[in-house]
Design a protein that fits this description.
Elements: H1 2-23, E1 27-29, E2 32-38, E3 41-46, E4 53-55, E5 59-65, E6 74-78, E7 84-86, E8 90-96, E9 104-105, E10 114-118, E11 131-141, E12 144-154, E13 181-185, E14 187-188, E15 191-192, E16 201-205
Parallel strand pairs: 1-12, 8-10
Antiparallel strand pairs: 2-3, 2-13, 3-8, 4-7, 5-6, 5-11, 9-10, 11-12, 13-16, 14-15
Bound molecules: calcium ion (CA) (2 copies).
One calcium ion binds near residues 150 and 196.
């Protein structure tokens, strides 16, 4: 008898999972986060277990500034050039004055993947402009659709629109990346704090490729 009953016990949750995946459009929100904004580089982080992988196809990093006359006033990078990220891994997008042409995959440090961009790529923060940055995008992975959406805004309001869910509580109105300080998301151990609120963030010493605890 037992060998007849056991397959039903296993099958039922599988069927429920497949039906609910189909009903919800098979979307899985992947935890690719923007975690630190330094003067000339930005840190992203995949806040998932270390056996998870995220293919970055169709996922983009974006920024915009409200600085009057800024040229460019915004930018966008296709993250797929960096391939895939492992859970717990950081990805640094960094300026290099010797780099010319389009953004390209290049390790930030031997164990930290990165994307190199031209000098002056990131916004100018001289007058504490309003800034929006974030990641967004999606692609299919068999039955499921991997989606990412995360954002931060800081600086003088009115800021450019956020790239996803975000509540401005104006704690960063006069904050900007400067010298050795970054706009940094709080961490709880290795978990990035994400309540989609400005107060998840504060000005802290730089910690590229590491949590800001
Ligand atoms: Ca968020
Ligand atoms: Ca960091």
């Amino acid at each position: 008898m037992r060998w007849i009953i056991a397959p039903r016990v296993v099958l039922a949750p599988t069927v429920v999972l497949l039906v609910s995946l189909a009903a919800t459009g098979c979307g899985v929100h992947r935890k690719l986060k923007i975690t630190e904004v330094q003067p000339n580089q930005v840190e992203l982080y995949l806040d998932e277990p270390s056996d998870h992988r995220l293919n970055l196809t169709n996922m983009r990093y974006k920024w915009a500034t409200n600085l009057s006359g800024a040229n460019p006033a915004g930018g966008e990078i296709d993250l797929s050039i960096a391939g895939e990220l492992r859970g717990g891994q950081f990805l640094i997008i960094f300026e290099d004055g010797n780099h010319t042409g389009a953004p390209a995959a290049r390790n930030f440090q031997p164990s930290i993947p990165g994307i190199v961009v031209q000098g002056g790529y990131f916004p100018s923060y001289g007058s504490t402009p309003g800034i929006a940055m974030g990641v967004s995008g999606k692609h299919r992975r068999g039955w499921v659709e991997d989606k990412v959406s995360d954002t931060v805004t800081f600086g003088a309001p009115p800021r450019p629109p956020a790239y996803g869910a975000f509540t401005q509580d104006n704690t960063l109105n006069s904050a900007k990346p400067s010298g050795s300080n970054s706009i940094s998301r709080a961490f709880n151990g290795t978990a990035a704090v994400d309540d989609d609120r400005e107060s998840d963030w504060s000005v802290r010493p730089q910690s590229p490729g590491a949590p800001s605890n």
